[in-house]
Amino acid sequence: MELKRYTASDVAASRFYQMPKFLFEGELKNLSNDARVLYAMIKDRHELSLQNKWVNNRNEVFLVFKREKMQEALGLSENTVIKAVKQLKEYGLIEEERQGLGKPNKIYLLFSASYNDFSGTSKSAGQEPGDLHIRAVTSEYQEPKDLRPNDTNKNQTDFVDTDNQSIHLRSGREWVSSDGLSDEDLREEVDLELLHFGGIPYPYNTDERRMETAIKLKTDWYDLTPQYFETVFQYDTYDLAVDCLIDMACADDIRSYKGSSVSYAKVIDKINDIIKRDNSLFSVIEEAVDDYIKKANDDEIHDKRKYMMSVLWNSFLTYRVKHESLFARTFGR
Questions:
Q1: CB within 8 A of 309, min separation 6: which ones?
Q2: What are residue 55's phi and psi, to 5 degrees?
Q3: Residue 10 covered by a domain
Q4: Which of 72-86, 169-183, 273-287 has the lowest mean pLDDT?
Q5: 283, β-bridge pairs
């Protein structure tokens, strides 16, 4: 590596991590330097979190950072990174929240209430540290899953543009294919894109593997074992329903379901309408499976895929009415 002295322009253009002074004060004097550097790296990812609108309803910023990426960034072993994360938790400097099936944990960074994080000096009484809220430190933490990291390197980070529902890279490329990703990495990638977008973006239509991953996440396909189902036929029918829904969302032509002309965009719109209400497609898939099985018990189904697609589309069309009817019965409105 070639080294040189800093010029004035070098200083202005340098990328760097901020190391808050409170990490060296009070009881935090016992914090390891590995933990301090990791804290600074996590803090650096807040910029991308704000750009991705990863903020909860209390205005608290969250992020994701996979353990393997922490190792790469720090150049340390797995055990050393685990110790650094554990220490940050023990001192109440990070918290992690689970979000349920098929969704990534959120990482929240905490800082000292007596420290002005933006000027590097102690704040006066009554002064609030900007618009960021300070999370209360709790004594119990859940063991986190591995998470895909943010990365504030603007030449490498991708994000979803929700205005035109297309996926871009800041390098200017229009699309990142799933071909080079492992199944596990793709699940993490899609998980975060769904979280940021709030549903399935239209461009998933051009990447069937990405669409398959998204729909399987939102139908709990990865979490339901054969033991969950009462019969093998019920399990096979559920699998058929998921596969047909992937086909419908990836269609490159106008199709007819129950006499309606339907494009892939209409299918995605119906999917996203349900995701916004329930955050899951499981209830729709379950209903379609039940309707399909009732038909199969009464009559022979000649074209199983075509019939399943019609059943799915009917479930989408009736979902809102059934949802609002159930709400009215439950709450008396």
A1: 244, 247, 248, 255, 257
A2: -135, 135
A3: no
A4: 169-183
A5: none
